[in-house]
Amino acid sequence: MTARVALIGANGHGRWHRRQIAGLRAAGIVELVALVDVRPVEPGPDEAPYFIDHREMLREAEPDVVVICTPPHTHRPIATDALRAGADVLLEKPPVLSLAEHRALSEVLRETGRACQVGFQALGSAALRELRRSIAYGVVGTVTGVATFASWQRDDAYYQRSPWAGRRTVNGRPALDGALANPLAHAWMQCLAIMDGDKPVGVELERYRCRDIEVDDTACMRITLASGRPVVVAVTLCGEEKVEGEVVVHGTAGRGVLEYPTDRLRLPGDDGFRDVPGRTNLLENLIRHRADGTALIAPLACTEQFTAVLDVLNSAPEPVLLGGDTVVEEGDPPARTVTIKGVNTALRQTAEKLALLSELPVPWAVDPHYARLTATPENALQISEETVR
Ligand SMILES: NC(=O)c1ccc[n+]([C@@H]2O[C@H](COP(=O)([O-])OP(=O)(O)OC[C@H]3O[C@@H](n4cnc5c(N)ncnc54)[C@H](O)[C@@H]3O)[C@@H](O)[C@H]2O)c1
């Protein structure tokens, strides 16, 4: 049976979803029954009734599945409305911005019996599956830690793209549009997936910014897991040459490296990276789940650890402003770029050594903010202690 799909948030990244939906529609898997946006919908590969108000759409179009691609601070209320209207949901990442929101949405899922898949599309990659299988077969030996680093470049225009760009809060609610929580969230979600349920017990966090923004454009954090193993994350949007995003698995028998945006893999004994193409489409997976109970690739429940770390970002001090000789500015606004000198070498070293920037000879690095995470008697994660060292 064809699933009736609606998309809320049809511009921006919503255009990518419209192309995905068009492909599934051509294959007879979905029917697009509505597009919703508070702004006029830009031209795309589709035609469907257009709504401004998602509640009106839910009443009139009665979709089976709703894709939600609105700004993160709007996710929880819109997802709640869609689930209560009887739809299953594909919710863009970051699904919610705090553990309180995660618990509230999980409760709605229990209440309604509906499903929520989160848009961490790299979790559906064949390369990640092969890496996890190789780890299970002992190809890297015993895993002692995992790290990820990425070096991207964003100009001033990026921070003018929408009202929540570069903002810590919007209308008093967390927005958290930093490098860690938004564009590079996939990188450390891959790491948490590789560590397979090993819960975080501590987060050491260093955040930096090179512009007049409220969030990090450069950051390093070390998540310590219950087993004692670290997950080190080092990312920047003020990078030198582009590093797409490498996930480095440290093992007693060697290292496995996954370039997650391009699905390339290098295992011990390989001469170099090789392509491992193929991704399971998260919407198609959700539709199969509805039809025959196929397991979801990225259910909301598997993002609790990710969201626990967002709670730490929410309560951490403002990112440190870098300037002067540490950075190089090029061009004029809105195409101006800012680059941190030597940042690529520094980020790569954190991944090599499972170290924080502040533990390396990086002159601009500052002491980390530290948060301890514990489980409540109901086995839910919470921040139990925080200090700035
Ligand atoms: N999975 C990925 O790789 C990926 C990539 C980019 C963005 N995203 C995520 O997608 C989401 C949207 O990001 P974006 O960059 O497209 O944001 P955006 O602000 O550019 O676009 C969001 C769209 O939602 C619309 N909108 C806002 N509030 C609305 C409401 N209440 N009802 C209906 N429409 C509303 C806006 O008008 C806009 O057209 C975010 O959660 C973002 O993190 C995910």
Automatic annotation (TrEMBL):
Q: Which GO terms describe its molecular function?
A: nucleotide binding; oxidoreductase activity
Q: Which InterPro entries match?
A: Gfo/Idh/MocA-like_OxRdtase_N (IPR000683), Gfo/Idh/MocA_oxidrdct_glycsds (IPR050463), GFO_IDH_MocA-like_dom (IPR055170), NAD(P)-bd_dom_sf (IPR036291)
GFO/IDH/MocA-like oxidoreductase domain segment(s): 129-255
Q: Which UniProt keywords apply?
A: Oxidoreductase
Tell me the domain of life: Bacteria
Q: Which residues form the Gfo/Idh/MocA-like oxidoreductase N-terminal domain?
A: 4-120
Q: Which Pfam families match?
A: GFO_IDH_MocA, GFO_IDH_MocA_C3
Protein name as annotated: Oxidoreductase
Can you name the source organism? Phytohabitans suffuscus
Q: What is the lineage of its organism?
A: Bacteria, Bacillati, Actinomycetota, Actinomycetes, Micromonosporales
